Amino acid sequence: MDNRIKHRLFALSAAIVLGMSAVAAPPARADDHGRREPHGRGPAARPGRIVDGRGYVLDNRYNHGHYYPRPGTVRRVLPDGYRPYYHGGSRYYFHGGIWFAPSGLGFAVVRPPVGLVISVLPAYYTTVWIGGFPYYYADDVYYRWRPADNGYVVVDPPAGADQPSAPPADARDDLIIYPKNGQNADQQAADRYECHRWSKAQTGFDPTEAGGGVPAAEHDRSRGDYLRAMTACLSARGYEVK
Q: pLDDT for 198-218, tens place per residue?
């Protein structure tokens, strides 16, 4: 075979191998702000987050106890029931506490950017009190209630995140709620949020704020009014409340 032909075939073979390697290379992982970072470090390796043999992460920080796909995992299609969000000119999709962003021919699991506001928390969030304030945690993401936006904003991990405090007594709502009509977890979270928003507007009491956000002299009365309003709202939506 002519040497020139051999060189051309060799070059073509090398190009094919390199192209296959690029396709097979694992996607970059996203850090807390939706940016990309190399493999081998990041949220999956943080305390309380354990990668299992299937590539899922058991997030047991604060006894959260839920599995999530590893950051950087790419799916061809989004799960049913996702919610779209836009922030900083970029698109994000939210479902079951998991965030996705467009990536090549699919959607990569990412960390949402700080400042993104959502209307409903993931169904299986964990409330963590840090520095006297409640944070809502799921899949290594912290959320705070922002009244001005009437929603929950993604925030940086707060200082002292490794040493949460016990919730104050007035933070408990003392309600045990059972779905009577087969409402799924997402629907339960949405209903509870809507009832909380309505009850807070009716009574001025907010259990997510220290002291309920009312003067100390009005605390007990306002808290009782809030619990009664929550009970009425949730009962009307098909829940048994005790």
A: 999 999 988 777 677 888 888
Whether 53 has a pLDDT exceeding 90, the answer reads no
CB atoms closer than 10 angstroms to residue 107? 22
Comparing CA positions, the residue from 41, 58, 28 lying closest to residue 140 is 58
Of 137, 112, 107, 139, the closest CA to residue 31 belongs to 112
| Torsion on CA atoms 40, 43, 48, 49, rounded to nearest 10 | -70
Q: Edge-to-edge, what's the strand order for the sheet holding 66-69? A: 49-51, 56-59, 66-69
Q: Say whether pLDDT at 30 is over 60.
A: no
What's the whole-model pTM score?
0.60
Query: Phi-psi category of 65—alpha, beta or left, where left has phi over 0 and alpha has psi -120 to 50?
Result: left
Residue that has been written with the tokens 């049913």 in this structure:
80
Whole-number Å distance between alpha carbons of 226 and 149 = 22
Helices 219-236 and 185-203 cross at an angle (nearest 10°) of 140
Share of the chain above pLDDT 70, in %: 74
- 133-138 vs 151-155, strand pairing mode: unpaired
For the chain, give every domain's residue range: 27-114, 170-241
Report the first-to-last Cα separation within the chain, whole angstroms.
Answer: 86
Question: What is each CA distance from 158 to 6, 10, 42, 143, 170, in whole angstroms?
Answer: 61, 55, 17, 10, 22
pLDDT for 224: 86
